[in-house]
Amino acid sequence: MDMPNAEDLGNLKVWDPRLETGVSTLDLQHRILFDLLQGLRHLGDAGESPALAQVLEQMRSYAGYHFRYEEDWVRKHARHLVGHPLIAVHTRLHERFNHDMSGFEARLEDGTLAVDELREFVQRWLVRHIIEQDLPMISALQGRSGTPAGPAG
Q: By the 8 A CB rule, do 153 and 96 touch?
């Protein structure tokens, strides 16, 4: 199966099965993150600060849970890749997302965060991360065609 292109799926409004990794728990978690992204769409461009703060906190909290689960899954299935730079890169990308979300939270507090900016960032990051990182890595770990990709996002 060919890997989907991040550019082709960059503006998804609904979940696309081409984002599925074949690992049911990870796919469910990705769908939940996508659903949280939809919460940003429902706020519109002038989202109220309390509602935006709630969606931002939910997204950050669930992303943290998902990242821990995914990193544990990778370590469990990549015993032969212990110390492989791919794993460290993947973890750093998760850490970078958390750092970026902290910046958005700070901007929300000082009143300079636009809903559309956050929505576009999360949409782009989530789709690119799944397509350019998760799909190739999980495919390689499960012995399907595809090779682990370099950094993205």
A: yes
